[in-house]
């Protein structure tokens, strides 16, 4: 027979086993909770650290913008050094782009690495939670099973007060054996949980070390890039300062040189050429008429009698487009040795300076040459729209400027006294726009008897009636001149 003391001892042993098991489970929960807290804290530190790095990077970027603004303001102050300053400005922009690109690459790598670490952290937490849930569920299930079976057997024993000692002892032995087996299994499971927890702790420590090393490397790279950018910015500022100083010195030197040049020109003015009369061959020269005390570069043409003429216009090969704006015709365009228009403002100043003659030389593709000579020539100022003034025709081309050419293109047209017109400044005498339709600026009437700035047509090109370089008595509106040159003296 089993004594009451044996049963009480068995109950006490089972109770102690349950207490030990509860302590082990609580210990495991504490370890898991601590590990989760450390992971959460580590993630928050990573986020705070990243925000600080972004703030520092933004501050560095703001500093670069301030430097760039100072750089641009300094450059705009010195127009004469514009070319050299623009080159430096482009280099400075490239410097900023390179560093922004390098920092962007490093930041992108760090963000990718941080993302991988976050994924690893989530995986660890998931594994821990899975292990905890599986083991706790298994432990609870086994404990409940043992508890239910023990209670059932104990109740059964209570119902049979007179069962034989042998059977009872055997049952107690089985219960004890089974409890020991369960205890061994539980302790083995607890040991496994401890080992897995330690492994997780090691993995976490390794991850934390990797994070710290990566942060340290990232900080070193950022510091290096900032130092490099600062050094290059300082070099750029020093170069700007040098250029600014050189520009100021150059400006002073230019002012001194200009003053001396003006003084020299005043002393030499009586000996400087005012026209092309003193030149011995055709070519480009600088003359010093009263209207241009600093001199103006012109092309001097010597005719068959060795008289010098200032060329104001030439057409010979179609290399220059003469369908230009009012501003272009005012300033002039082209190449003095090739096709060009000297410029209405220059022509006005030269004809205002003294009375001038105008000579127009023309040549057809068949070799026929003609000329027109006007003894009086000038144009008014821009405020009067460069009005044309001519008088005294001679020559063999027949006059198409002072009088209307016979059977002119648009009826009876006179050019003398007319205003200059371009496609963007229509001053002609028709309801339409002659410069828009026939192309090129000219002293249009309704529309022209002569138009020397029309489109250039080469020898074999078909000429639309009225287009091209026209002098009606020669071209008749259906051909175009090969060569024309306007000169004055």
Automatic annotation (TrEMBL):
Molecular function in Gene Ontology: extracellular matrix structural constituent; protein-macromolecule adaptor activity
Gene Ontology CC annotations of this record: fibrinogen complex
Keywords from the named record: Coiled coil, Disulfide bond, Glycoprotein, Secreted
Domain Fibrinogen C-terminal: 267-489
Primary localization class, coarse: secreted
Keyword Transmembrane: no
Coiled coil residues, start to end: 11-38
GO BP term, pick one: positive regulation of heterotypic cell-cell adhesion
Entry's localization field: Secreted
CDD domains referenced in this protein's UniProt entry, alphabetically: FReD
Top-level lineage group: Eukaryota
Record-given protein name: Fibrinogen C-terminal domain-containing protein
